[in-house]
Amino acid sequence: MSTLQDIASKAGCSTATVSRVLNRSGPVSEGMVRRVRKAASDLGYRRTERPAPMIRRRSAIGVLIPSITNPVFAASLLGIQNRMRVSGIGVLIAQSDYDPAREAEAIEYLLSEKPTGLILTVCNPLKSELSLPFAMPPTVLLNNLPTPRFPAAVTTDNRLAGQEITEYLIEHGHRRILFVSGHFDASDRAKLRYDGHCEAMAAAGLPVLDALQIPFVTGHDELDLAEPLKRQRPTAIIASNDLLALGVIGAVRREGLSVPGDMSVVGFDGIAIGRLIDPPLTTVEMPDTSMGATAASLLLDIAENAATPRHLMIGYKLHAGGTVRRLG
After folding, report:
1. Can you give the pTM of this predicted structure?
2. Is 270 found in the same domain as 128?
3. Which segments constitute the HTH lacI-type domain (predicted)?
């Protein structure tokens, strides 16, 4: 078999020139190109094609969140991405818009990318897991309580948080408290907060008002509270998250009422914008960034070290802003 050296000798040039001609990898005169190609043809040279190098696919995990625009989940994503970056692992993101049907589609997409693991915030884990395939990579629930199928979870105590924020309002003299939330079938976190609220009201011997459930992702700027304010006559409103609490404050003001002069309002999450309004929002501050980082570390421990899946609970803090008035 002819070699580059044989062609170089016959063409009267260097092997480097032969290589440049045959690989079209550098400047060579037209005359030399013809000489090298003729020499290669005369010698019966056949170029051996090297197989293309295999591209090593970067490891990645899949993350499902209800909404990319909610600062709560953006903070959790930040914690997840920062932790995975240290380990050289990519992050694939999908959102469900608090819709169980879209949730199933989003998880199907993540699984199609063959992730090394999943971090999921779902509407209701006991219902959501019924639509998932039998074979799943290591999975950690974030913000959802663990289930027999998915025992690995990172949460905070939403029920107790709902109880404590209600007790805070009761201590400030409020007896009729309206709970405004997204639909409970779209968020078990909101349902747990409402359950805690109901327990605190019952323990104090106070009436429990029916929760007002609205869509999570649309219409906060157009929220109309005229009818429930007239019918239920609350002195305070608990919103199931801070974004909704801001919408409640806007709706209360459109009714000609002031916060907290005429109506007290509280929320959950502790997002930054709540501290920027006047007066600052009273809220239960959740550890969203640290929860994301903790979920990422737990997933890596399970996937890489075969650690036992476990439930980790992180604390919250009640932040007293200026949107609650003391009555009496």
Report:
1. 0.79
2. no
3. 2-56
